[in-house]
Fold:
Amino acid sequence: MRSPIENRFGLPALVLVALLALYGTAAATRSPAAPAPVPRPERVPVASVTAVCPAPGEAAVGVLTPPGDQAPGTASLVAAGRTLAAVNVPGRLWREEVPASSSPLVVTASGSMASGLEVSQTRRETSGGQRGLAGVRCTEPVASTWLIGPGPSAADVTLHLSNADPAPAVAEVVIYSGEGPVITENGNVFTLKPGENRTIRMRDLAPSALVMAIEVRTASGRVTAAARALMNGGRGVDWLPVSAAPATRVVVPGIPGGGGRRELLVASPAEADTLVEIKALTPEGTYALKDRELVEVPAGSVAALDLAAGIGGQPAALLLTADTPFVAGLVATGTGARTDVAFTAGADPVDLGSVVAENRVDGATTSRLLLTASQAAGSVSVQVVPGTGEAHEPFQVDIPAARTAQVALPKIKGTFAVVVRPLPGSGPVHGGRVLEERLKGGAALTVQPLAMARIWALVPPMAESAAIVLP
Structure:
């Protein structure tokens, strides 16, 4: 007979063995645990916006938040510490001629006025050395801004940097020319005090460049960047639109039809040569340009290619592809004894909609949209918001796949804004607004690529961590 001690410990041992066998079988037969999802940026509504108009003196400035949201909000327009206006109703266009010699105009918006806020400035000169139309979308501060256009050998190019915040900011200006990267003895780093605006003559940094690409990198703080080109010999004036960031696939929209010069500019920041394939997207379809299907861009430089004969005077966009990232823009001139110049650049699709706040249609002036479906067919709604009265009912525009559609905007008394929204099921749509005025001696024109509306912001993922407080 076994002792009581043996009986007392034998039974628990048997139970323990049974439990181990049971859990071992479960561990061997269970499916592997699914990996934890990778955190992704979260899309949140824009709650505040800051935009800077670089040189609004003697220019018309238009401000619009698209109609829709009726929640509280406000937008303030401030120049040199003086408030020019306060706007608090979405869907109402504010427009005013800004006095000469005005400092940069800072527009800040919050609440419902921030969602989709758009600001544009347009200056009109009918004679003199600055004859023509010069328009620009007033830009918000970002980490990197790309601009591409003529260099100081072809135009008087001025770079405008603005720090609208109450903290200092530091910006670096990186320049690429047709001969390669431009290195200066004194460096291209600029410190801006709170609220400071700086105008830089590009001939002081790159005096011999015929064409150039500029990247403004913000090292600390927040800086807006814009550039204006006054062509040599009185051949027109305009602002360089901000180009989309370097990518292997770039769409350059808003190329106006008609005669005149059409010069493609492609810049590569890569350390190796880049071969870029070119296709034109016109109302008739997509095609490769004869004898201009490819452009080779040497490492760290800018290449130029004449496309006037290839496009043949049609309204168009360009689809450019390569194996390494690049940026692109286009120079367009009008016809006549006195020519004007306009610039367009690579742009993102208007997946969240877009607004152009400064348009006119009258006896001598026309405004039109050039909309391009670069892949699948596109459909958008176009809504006109007049300077006075209620917004018009939107109308639908369908764009066949891989084509460009030209949309004439209706004749309306005074200045008006245009709101473009993609419709459900639409493929990616790129676009540009062409503003043209018939003047004695030749037409004046300016192009504004459609930029994605400031409606949503991507917030990087966040997680709790004790590392932030550890030494």
